[in-house]
Design goal:
Largest sheet: 5 strands, antiparallel
CATH architecture of the largest domain: 3-Layer(bba) Sandwich
Oligomer: single chain
Helix content: 10-25%
CATH class of the largest domain: Alpha Beta
Structural class: mainly beta
Number of strands: 13
Order of helices and strands: EHEEEEEEEEHEEEE
Radius of gyration: 18 Å
CATH topology of the largest domain: Hepatocyte Growth Factor
Shape: elongated
Strand content: 25-35%
Length: about 160
């Protein structure tokens, strides 16, 4: 790691990121969630990232946080619908084109992987009861219209985010 410019007790990674944004010379932060309250480490540089901490997330000050597991369904530009074995296949029509590709997915991790596989996907909504996964290009707004779904940004389901 680089030159340390402070260590703070914080509630979550969002607080750590905000603290780095507000601290002069802070270019990188590391958030460690292994404690009851998380710890935030601020750095002026980061020539090497120590990957031995499985409960740590390190990011640049300029990198925005990902929005992960936001309650509700995305109201954005649809890329495709991915259904589980238990969901009947249905044609879904967007304003721009008909979606006729369907794959079988079973859990949120597989839904996140489907989003990574699709070049145009930047967001996904996962329905926990049915296993249905809806991929979106954009998602400026979510609608809290379902109790069994949440929306996440591409990258949330991988292990590097700690979600």
């Amino acid at each position: 790691m680089g030159e340390s410019i402070g260590t703070y007790e914080v509630v979550d990674e969002g607080d750590c990121w905000s603290l780095c944004q507000e601290t002069p010379r802070c270019e990188f932060y590391s958030y460690d969630s292994s404690f009851l309250e998380g710890f935030c480490f601020l750095y002026s540089s980061c020539p090497v990232i120590d990957e031995s901490c499985s409960t740590c997330t390190t990011s640049e000050n300029e990198c925005p946080l990902l929005s992960c597991q936001v309650p509700g369904e995305c109201l954005g530009v649809l890329v495709m619908v991915v259904v589980s074995r238990s969901t009947p296949l249905e044609c879904v029509t967007s304003l721009f084109r008909q979606i006729d590709e369907f794959n079988t997915r079973g859990d949120e991790g597989e839904c996140a992987a489907a989003c990574v596989e699709q070049l145009l996907c930047n967001w996904y909504t996962y329905f926990t009861d049915s296993g249905k996964c809806v991929l979106y290009n954009t998602c400026q707004v979510t609608e809290d219209n379902c109790e069994d779904c949440f929306t996440s940004e591409k990258g949330c389901g991988d292990d590097s985010q700690g979600e």
